[in-house]
Amino acid sequence: VFVVHTARAWLDGVFGVQYVQAESPVYINANNVPQPDVAVLAHDRRHYLTAGTPPASDVRLIVEVSESTLS
Using an 8 Å Cβ cutoff, are 38 and 4 in contact? Predict the structure, then answer.
């Protein structure tokens, strides 16, 4: 959790808080709508209040943090 909050804070500073969303869906296709830990979007988050879930083409960066590794 700490790593996700740190990543989000850093991305907020670099890209602007209005372009960074956390733990919200990104539309890939009807069967694939992941919820990455953090995503940087092409448009202000307010744009998606009327446009709906951001499509993959509007995603500039996705951060998914794993707190454990597979053995």
Answer: yes
Q: For the whole prediction, is pTM greater than 0.70?
A: yes
26 vs 56: CA distance, rounded Å: 6
Instruction: Output the 3-class SS for 8-28.
Output: HHHHHHHHCHHHEEECCCCEC
**CB 24 within 8 Å of CB 18:** no
The length of the chain in residues reads 71
Query: Which amino acid, residue 62?
Result: I
Quick one: pLDDT band at residue 10, thresholds 50, 70, 90? very high
Task: With a cut of 80, say whether residue 33 has pLDDT above it.
Answer: yes
